[in-house]
Specification:
The complex is a heterodimer of chains A (338) and B (194). Chain A has 338 residues and is mainly α. Chain A has a domain of 204 residues. Chain A contains 21 helices and 2 strands. In chain A, strand 1 and strand 2 form a beta hairpin. In chain A, helix 8 packs across helix 17. The longest helix of chain A has 25 residues. The radius of gyration of chain A is 30 Å and the shape is elongated. In chain B, strands 1-6 form a two-stranded antiparallel ribbon. A two-stranded antiparallel sheet of chain B has the order 2-5. Chain B has 2 domains: 35 residues; 154 residues, no CATH class. Chain B has 5 helices and 6 strands; from the N terminus they run H-E-H-H-E-E-E-H-E-H-E. The model of chain B has no long low-confidence stretch (mean pLDDT 88). At the A-B interface, helix 3, helix 7 and helix 8 of A face helix 1, strand 1 and strand 4 of B.
Chain lengths: 338, 194
């Protein structure tokens, strides 16, 4: 029959067909008799054609309640959004006015605990890039107001105060901030080349997000290195990637933030036009260059913070002799230096 | 650096900031026009392979149980009690192809995790257990949403009262739900809830 229907198939072709379908044929021979009710051990026929009513069941039977999916709470989303705004404001105040590394660390650990471990990392501004992109191009795809807020707030904050989101609020940044124990300096050229990777990643994420629904993929989320840690579970490749980034992060300051984070790419553009950003000034700091060596992110050039790459971690202030000695009034130290 | 120079830089900065803010505002408006309050992952039962195919469906899809990032999937089998036939021999509770034991019931249960409880309800006939109705309760702490019972409850064996549902209180609401990616039939969708 086969040969008549498909005359082009050669003899070797049909052997190949047999071989390639051998498993299916074997399965059919073994499984089909089992499926045939006449051959199986149980003669099964459906006892009822309709569901019995409560009356026919009798004895005062009441149909139990079926558990329905719980509604998601809008209040919690509003709370999260408010918390994000407060944390951004607090981060700005800490690094721009207070200039305290200690306070910045407390904030970033708190945000890691809440947004990372408690809220389990979804949805974050980094991943929201994809939702926003898809919502812009696909008329049938819409996002909640909450996600618009999550995406927009850190960008607006960057426009006013620089990348305070990176240093103070982002859970992915915080986990890397904590493992950075033995920072080594990445040569500026290498740093620049690697830094362009995040633009490629951003472009790829956008391309995958605008694909038609069938082949669409959210690659930022697929390769999110740290969400597996926040949830204490995840696909193996995610945990492996996260582990690799954390080990690398012991020596290289925040490798994901600096070289891969697509949201960091957006923030670096917006922070370029920041109203105020982290600044190392001769008035409030000492022009000694200690901060230059203290910055593990290569964001200080000529004793001044580069606003596009400064991650607002406030390490430079801790290294500054003026801020280090709390007893000494700032003015005295600057005078001594002069 | 002269004072003029500085002010020009300031003006440029303000202009750039204003333009960026306007841009962000524009994008927000575009998105807000069709935005909704909240959303969650749902299984569209009409597209689910296990809900569509009956016991004769050869490809049993187990992805709801295996693909979730949680150790125990957020998907659960849910018995829609009002539609349940309360059968004596429930094809979703018993493995109806297994040997019959002394009680005249199939010797094996279908659920690999023994998550379904069977108990007689209503008026009980003391002489003929086959004449009784039985309630099939699914223990949500044991069920992993594999969907084997969904397949066998379906026509022609059963009435199709068992469905799969995402439990939103356990679902982590991953932006990129791994079950939705693995689902053979696009039965997963992010649906507005408010």
């Amino acid at each position: 029959m086969k040969a008549i229907r498909e005359p082009t198939r050669s003899r070797s072709g049909s052997i190949r067909w047999l071989l390639s379908h051998a498993l299916a044929i074997a399965l059919a021979v073994i499984v089909l008799p089992g499926l045939n009710p006449a051959w199986s051990q149980t003669d099964y026929s459906r006892p009822v054609d309709v569901a019995p009513s409560e009356e026919s069941i009798g004895e005062g039977y009441v149909t139990p309640d079926v558990q329905r999916p719980l509604a998601t709470s809008i209040g919690r989303q509003l709370f999260d959004l408010g918390l994000l705004a407060v944390a951004l404001g607090l981060a700005a105040w800490i690094v721009l006015r207070r200039r305290s590394r200690w306070a910045a660390l407390v904030l970033t650990v708190s945000c890691l605990a809440y947004f990372g471990f408690y809220r389990e990392g979804c949805i974050c501004p980094i991943g929201s890039i994809q939702n926003v992109t898809t919502a812009l191009v696909d008329p049938s795809y819409a996002i909640p107001y909450f996600v618009i807020g999550i995406f927009m707030l850190p960008l607006v904050a960057a426009l006013f105060f620089g990348r305070v989101f990176c240093g103070g609020v982002c859970a992915l940044g915080a986990i890397q901030e904590l493992v950075l124990l033995k920072p080594i300096e990445v040569p500026p050229k290498v740093d620049r080349v690697l830094g362009s990777l995040k633009w490629i990643y951003l472009a790829a994420a956008i391309v995958f997000a605008v694909l038609p629904a069938v082949s669409r993929d959210f690659i930022i989320c697929r390769f999110d290195p740290f969400v597996g840690f926040f949830r204490f579970t995840g696909p193996f490749h995610m945990l492996l990637l996260g582990g690799a980034f954390l080990v690398l992060g012991i020596f290289v300051g925040r490798p994901y933030c600096r070289y891969l984070c697509p949201y960091g790419a957006l923030l670096s553009v917006f922070s370029r036009y920041a109203w105020k950003s982290v600044s190392i000034t001769p008035d409030r700091e000492l022009d000694c260059g200690l901060c230059d060596q203290a910055c593990p992110y290569g964001a200080i050039e000529e004793m001044r913070a580069v606003r596009t790459s400064c991650l607002a971690c406030a390490r430079c202030f801790r290294s500054c002799p003026v801020h280090r000695s709390c007893e000494t009034p700032a003015a005295d130290v600057t005078q001594e230096a002069a | 650096m002269s004072k003029d120079d500085l002010s020009r830089r300031d003006v440029m900065g303000m202009a750039a900031r204003g333009a960026a803010l306007a841009g962000l505002g524009g994008v927000s408006t575009l998105l807000a026009v069709k935005a909704h309050g909240s959303d969650a992952w749902y299984i569209d039962t009409s597209k689910c392979v296990n809900s569509r195919l009956g016991a004769l469906g050869v490809d049993t899809c187990l992805r709801c149980a295996t693909e979730c990032v949680l150790p125990l999937s957020a998907v659960r089998a849910v018995n829609e009690f009002a539609d349940c036939g309360r059968c004596y021999i429930c094809p979703a509770y018993f493995d109806i192809h297994s040997a019959i034991d002394a009680d005249g019931l199939p010797s094996k249960k279908l659920c690999p995790r023994d998550a379904i409880e069977r108990r007689p309800i209503g008026w009980i006939d003391p002489d003929d257990p086959a004449n009784n109705f039985y309630e099939y309760l699914i223990d949500e702490s044991l069920c992993d949403g594999c969907g084997l019972c969904v397949m066998d409850c379906k026509e022609p064996a059963g009435l199709g009262s068992i469905k799969l549902e995402v439990r939103h209180d356990t679902c982590l609401a991953c932006n990129r739900c791994s079950i939705s990616i693995a689902c053979p039939d696009e039965a997963y969708e992010l649906r507005p809830t408010v």
